[in-house]
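Is this the right way to post structure tokens for a design question? Let me know if I should format differently. Anyway, here goes:
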């Protein structure tokens, strides 16, 4: 039986479509919307590409949520030809995953020509069927990690070829791949960090250390140039967003304070790799608790990872296959330890993608060593495997594949994902809050009173669980107040919304909600007070302006409202809706002169033929 790159590529493609084929019918879930339907840059198609490179990929309230123009460009091109289609997006994810796995096999073939092809092939198979990769493939937004992986493994292949043929164009190509990877996601640094290590195990013996230092310095300078280019491309440089406590409780800690948690995180990832059960789209506080030096797990993790580091160095010359595998795992664990950069949710399955390469290699290596020890396999064999070996490997593959296929179903949409994972991520405040949010959407759409009440009670339970885990979770307090409001329990709803305000004095949502409560209780002056407080924070809050307008008109408080809104318009000169409200109120007072002022302001913000026509008509009524 002849095994070559082409036959392996076909096998990989078939295997991946077998286990990920059912993901193609999935809809959008989690944060998928921020790269397609809710991303203005993507929705412009190919013509929007120049703007994609000038703006942050995701931003909100003047905080940047990442600069990943290559990823957004891929979605813009996809939109140009296929529109908004989750099926196309899922297909692209599966194809990118397959491409990476094919390139990974090619890389292992180049790097370890003396290692049995069966060990390398089974390492690839283990990598493919590992359930920890379901998030990466099923979550469309994770295309950033897949693109980085493809660019990263390609640059590693090119570097190995450069060590052989010394062709200069390969260095240029590697530099381009690093640039593309960095503009996809900064996790490209993991693949780049492997370059000096590859030189250590495959480079020339003479002056090896000096060469490694030179390569490392060159890489650092390249990253500096890439970052400078990024600053020049962006229209406006914005600060990184801050993590909230329930996203990552290490947010205000020094590196010394983070150290115990950072060390213990390694054990969490090891557990995921060895036993990928109860996977979740999100973890966060307090699913991943803050560790202290009094925790036994910190010292256990320190011992395990210190031993792996020692063993990696010890066998670097005698067993470069295992040494490289351990390097992949350790460099990934160090990068995602939260010691040097914080990560949303503290840990995530997609964050250990590079490290899982090493894990698969180690497991495959020792499985075949075990087969060799019990005389079921010979390391010199390149053609034949015994029936017993095939049977054992087949069972392992089937077990993992079944888990992957089942996990794909959870990613069908937001509700299926969150409702599935909340059952086993019991200590995550964020997951309980997200489930309550999904239930709120169900409540709004449900017409059956019994089902609706069932959803309400479950949502209340989830909010209470989130608050129990993290008492200052303002989103959950706000959702809980909304649920009590839906039940007409205004007293409890009022307590909840006031609690939100005690946590965040600038949040317009609870102000608006308190206004609604007082309006329902016919406390009109209180209602107007809180509507105005909300307007003072965010005049563009959904439905706030029409509700406020209806109240002041009913109260006969139009003059007072105009005085308040006139001052407010100076604070928010770009609020189109605020200008429209002043136009309506001045019109009701037959004050066409002031009405014209705000008509002109509104038309400046959003020019339209309708506004221009009004301006022309109103001008005729005003005496010159």
């Amino acid at each position: 039986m002849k095994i070559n790159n082409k036959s392996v590529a076909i096998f990989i493609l078939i295997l991946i479509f077998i286990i990920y084929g059912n993901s193609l019918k999935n809809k959008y879930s989690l944060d998928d919307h921020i790269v397609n339907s809710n991303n203005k840059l993507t929705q412009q198609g190919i013509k929007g590409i120049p703007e994609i490179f000038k703006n942050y990929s995701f931003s909100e309230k003047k905080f940047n949520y990442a600069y990943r123009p290559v990823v957004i460009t891929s979605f813009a091109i996809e939109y140009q030809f296929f529109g908004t289609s989750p099926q196309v997006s899922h297909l692209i994810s599966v194809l990118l995953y397959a491409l990476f796995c094919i390139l990974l096999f090619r890389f292992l073939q180049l790097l370890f020509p003396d290692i049995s092809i069966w060990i390398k092939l089974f390492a690839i198979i283990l990598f493919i069927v590992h359930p920890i990769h379901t998030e990466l493939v099923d979550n469309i937004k994770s295309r950033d990690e897949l693109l980085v992986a493809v660019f990263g493994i390609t640059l590693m292949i090119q570097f190995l070829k450069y060590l052989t043929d010394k062709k200069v164009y390969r260095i240029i190509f590697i530099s381009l791949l690093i640039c593309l990877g960095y503009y996809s996601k900064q996790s490209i640094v993991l693949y780049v960090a492997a370059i000096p290590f590859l030189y250590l195990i495959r480079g020339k013996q003479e002056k090896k250390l000096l060469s490694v230092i030179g390569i490392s310095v060159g890489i650092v300078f390249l990253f500096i140039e890439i970052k400078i280019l990024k600053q020049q491309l962006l229209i406006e440089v914005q600060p990184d967003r801050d993590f909230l406590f329930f996203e990552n409780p290490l947010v205000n800690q020094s590196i010394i304070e983070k150290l115990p948690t950072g060390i213990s995180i390694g054990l969490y990832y090891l557990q995921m790799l060895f036993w990928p059960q109860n996977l979740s789209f999100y973890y966060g506080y307090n699913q991943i608790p803050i560790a202290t030096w009094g925790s036994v797990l910190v010292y256990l993790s320190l011992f395990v990872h210190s031993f792996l580091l020692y063993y990696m160095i010890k066998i670097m010359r005698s067993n470069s296959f295992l040494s490289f595998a351990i390097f992949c795992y350790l460099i990934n664990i160090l990068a995602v330890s939260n010691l040097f950069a914080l990560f949303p949710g503290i840990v995530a399955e997609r964050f250990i993608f590079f490290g899982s390469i090493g894990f698969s290699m180690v497991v495959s290596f020792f499985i075949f060593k075990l087969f060799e020890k019990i005389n079921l396999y010979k390391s010199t064999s390149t053609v034949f495997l015994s029936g017993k070996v095939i049977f054992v490997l087949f069972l392992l593959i089937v077990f993992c594949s079944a888990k992957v296929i089942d996990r794909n179903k959870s990613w069908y949409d937001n509700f299926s994902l969150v409702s599935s994972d909340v059952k086993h991520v019991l200590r995550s405040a964020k997951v309980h809050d997200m489930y309550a949010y999904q239930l709120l959407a169900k409540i709004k759409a449900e017409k059956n009173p019994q089902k609706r009440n069932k959803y309400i009670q479950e949502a209340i339970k989830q909010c209470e669980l989130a608050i129990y885990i993290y008492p200052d979770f303002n989103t959950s307090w706000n959702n809980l107040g909304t649920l009590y409001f839906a039940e007409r329990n205004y007293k409890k709803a009022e307590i909840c919304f006031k609690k939100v305000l005690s946590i965040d004095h600038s949040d317009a949502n609870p102000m608006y909600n308190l206004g609604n409560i007082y309006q329902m209780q016919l406390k009109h002056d209180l209602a107007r007070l809180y509507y105005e407080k909300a307007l003072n924070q965010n005049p563009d809050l959904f439905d706030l302006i029409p509700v406020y307008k209806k109240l002041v008109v009913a109260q006969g408080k139009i003059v007072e409202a105009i005085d308040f809104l006139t001052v407010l318009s100076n604070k928010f000169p770009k609020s189109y809706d605020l200008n429209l409200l002043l136009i309506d109120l001045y019109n009701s007072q037959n004050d066409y002169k002031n009405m014209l002022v705000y008509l002109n302001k509104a038309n400046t913000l959003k020019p339209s033929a309708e506004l221009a026509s009004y301006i022309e008509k109103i001008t005729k009524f005003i005496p010159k």
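Format looks fine. Someone answered above. Worth noting: The chain is about 70% helix and 0% strand. The chain has a mean pLDDT of 92.
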